[in-house]
Amino acid sequence: MTLPKRVKLVEVGPRDGLQNEPAPVPTEVKVELIHRLQDAGLKVIEATAFVSPKWVPQMADNARVMAAIRRKPGVSHPVLVPNKKGLDAALAAGVEEVVVFGAATESFSQKNTNCSIAEGLARFAEVCKEALARGLKVRGDISVCLGCPYEGEVRPEAVVRVARALDDMGCYEITIADTIGVGTPGKARTVFEAVMKHIPAQRLAGHFHDTYGQALANTYAALECGAATFDASVAGLGGCPYAKGATGNVATEDVLYMLDGLGIETGVDIVKLIAAGEYICGVLGRPTHSKAARALTAKSKA
Ligand code: HMG
Ligand code: MG
C-alpha cells in the first residue's frame, strides 16, 4: 500500500481550539495566532465560526477576526456556518469558504445544533446552494463518526448517509470527525472504507480528537486508506462545548512530526509551528499538549 506523497494540513486551532476556552480570548490574540500559523506555512486555517453567540460566545467576534486577518496568497480561512443566518453574516465578512457541520447521530445533532439530522441537512442544502452560487467553496464536517457521547457505538452506514447527502449538495471535501476521540484505527479504517465506496479518499479528511491518545494512530489508518487531508489543532488546543470531557484535536505539531518522518510533504515548518503553539499557550497560561513540541523544545535548549 502506498501512502500519499503530500498531505494538506487544515489548522483548526483558532476555531475548534479557542471555541472551548472558558475565558474569552481577545480578538487580537486570535488574529496574531492565525498570522503565525500562516507564516509557518499552513495553507488552510479555520478562522472562526458564524454560529449563535448565545450558544458559543467564544466565537462572537467572528466578523472582527475576519476583518483583521492579513490575507496571504494561497491561504484560505474557512469558517463554520450552521444556517442561512450564519452564511449571510459570513458573506458580509468577506469569507471565501464555509464549512457546514452535521452529525452521524440524532442526539449529537440536537445537542450541537438544536435540530434533527434531516433538519440540519435541509439547512445545509440551502447554505450550499447560495454559497456555491456566489462562488464560495463549501466543506462538510460530520461529527461523532467513530462514537457518540450520547449514543455510544455509531454504525458506518449512519456516517455514509450524511456523507452522501453532503456530497450531493456540492461539498468539495467531507470530514470524518471523531469528536470525542474514542475511535481506534480499525474503526477509523472501517468508516473510511465505507464512505470511500461512494466518495473518493482524495475528497475525504480526517478530524481526530485525541481524548484517548488514538488520534495519530487513526490518522495513519486514514492515510493508509488514501486520505490526504487532516484537521489538527496547534498545541492540541480544543474540544467541543457539546461533547463533555472530550479533549482537543490531535496537535498539529505531532501530525507534522509523523508526516515529516514518513517523508510526506506538507509545506509546513515545524520550528515556526512550535513557536505559534508557544505563543498561544503563553497567552492561555498553560503547557502545550503536543509531545513533539515538548520534546523538540527541550532538545533545542539542551
Ligand atoms: P437555535 O437556538 O435553535 O436557533 O440554535 P434559532 O434559529 O432558534 O435562533 C436562536 C437565536 O440565535 C436567534 O437570536 C437567532 O437570530 C440567533 P434571538 O432572536 O434569540 O436574539 N442565531 C444566530 N446568530 C448568529 N449566527 C447564527 C445564528 N443562527 C441563529 N448563525 C444554532 C441553532 C444552529 C444557531 C445553534 O445551535 C448554534 O449556533 N450551534 C452551533 C454550535 C457550535 O458552534 N458547536 C461547535 C462547533 S461544531 C464542532 O466543534 C465539531 C467539529 O469540530 C467536528 C467534530 O469534532 O466533531 C466541527
Ligand atoms: Mg472538532
How are the SSEs placed, and which strands pair?
Layout: E1 8-11, H1 13-17, H2 27-39, E2 44-45, E3 48-49, H3 62-68, E4 79-80, H4 84-92, E5 97-103, H5 106-113, H6 117-133, E6 137-143, H7 156-169, E7 173-178, H8 185-196, E8 204-208, H9 215-225, E9 229-232, H10 252-261, H11 270-284, H12 291-301
Parallel strand pairs: 1-2, 1-9, 3-4, 4-5, 5-6, 6-7, 7-8, 8-9
Helix pairs in contact: 2-3, 2-11, 6-7, 7-8, 8-9, 10-11
Bound molecules: 3-hydroxy-3-methylglutaryl-coenzyme A and magnesium ion.
Unreliable runs, pLDDT <50, ≥5 residues? none
The major pleated sheet works out as:
9 strands, parallel
Radius of gyration: 18 Å
- The CATH first-level class comes to Alpha Beta
CATH superfamily: Aldolase class I
Output the number of helix runs.
12
Count of folded domains: 1
CATH architecture: Alpha-Beta Barrel
Mean residue pLDDT: 96
SSE string: EHHEEHEHEHHEHEHEHEHHH
Terminal Cα span: 39 Å
Could you name the CATH topology? TIM Barrel
* Percent range for β-strand residues: 5-15%
The tally of beta strands, per DSSP, is 9
Major sheet strand order: 2-1-9-8-7-6-5-4-3
Structural class: alpha/beta
Fraction of helical residues: 40-55%
Q: What is the 3D shape?
A: globular
Bound molecules: 3-hydroxy-3-methylglutaryl-coenzyme A, magnesium ion
